[in-house]
Amino acid sequence: MLSLDIFGFNALWSPMFFFILSLLVLGYFLVTVKIRDKFKGSEPITRKQGIIFTLAIILLYVVKGSPLDLMGHIMFYAHMTQMAILYLVIPPMIVVGIPQWIWRKILSYKAIKSAFKFFTHPLIALILFNGVFSIYHIPDVFDVIKTDMWLHAIYTTILFGLAIFMWWPLVNQLDEYETLSGVKKVGYIFADGILLTPACALIIFADVPMYATYSDPRAWMEAMELCVSPTILSSLSLSGPEMFNSMSLLHDQQLGGVLMKVIQEIVYGYVLAQIFFTWYRKEQKEEETIRDKDLNPQLAE
């Protein structure tokens, strides 16, 4: 099997993307630490927020700037791993990592606030994200998007935005934008898991390779141009992804569907546990408050 090194340093490590993300992290800490006092209503950043946001950007680079991105054009299971991390792991980390006062500043603009309220409505957020994600993995749609640089960039960016909206009702910490209670959040997660299942099942139980960009040499080469210079590709004698992967196309495809579902279950299980314990602690605190008032009537006055 061939090594990915033949594609060159730029294709493997995307230095420009690394530079852009580095500026984003620097800008984040500049606004939240260095010049925070210049913003009315700002609050000190917590260590947890800083760590979570930085980890989210590191994961974003790993997914879209490291060799994993190149592998995602060669092996379908790498692509689905990308999808799982990009849309199920990074968005909630960004929502939590951005301080609440910054979110309030962003949402203070009427147009943004109206759009946010619409797209983060639980039912709309669920349907839009899972619908657009499922449409993306319809073979004919997938092969067109995977071979067009601008269409791929636009579609995946929209999907990332919809992922932010989908996670917002679950993890946002602004009281005025809380639309779901503890019990409803549990139902929301279960509904989300159910809506994502058909796309994964279609991939897992298909008995033939579905995507031309992983099975047809010509379509595969077109897809590779999204992350590798055409000049480099033309200098190489490549026949298809089988030159880099000993796994059959069908098994690669099935593994991709399984990994997507497994990562989803792990992430949703973790969030579900967090929601449950937060809800439990809140209920316990309310019961203790009521009990204290009953034992000491003066507290109730």
Automatic annotation (TrEMBL):
It comes from the Bacteria. The keyword Membrane applies. This is Cytochrome c oxidase assembly factor CtaG. Its main location: membrane. InterPro entries: Caa3-assmbl_CtaG (IPR014108), Caa3_assmbl_CtaG-rel (IPR019108). It is a multi-pass membrane protein. It comes from Cytobacillus spartinae. Keywords: Cell membrane, Membrane, Transmembrane, Transmembrane helix. The lineage of its organism: Bacteria, Bacillati, Bacillota, Bacilli, Bacillales. The keyword Zinc-finger does not apply. It is found in: Cell membrane. The chain crosses the membrane at residues 12-33, 45-63, 83-103, 115-138, 150-168, 189-212.
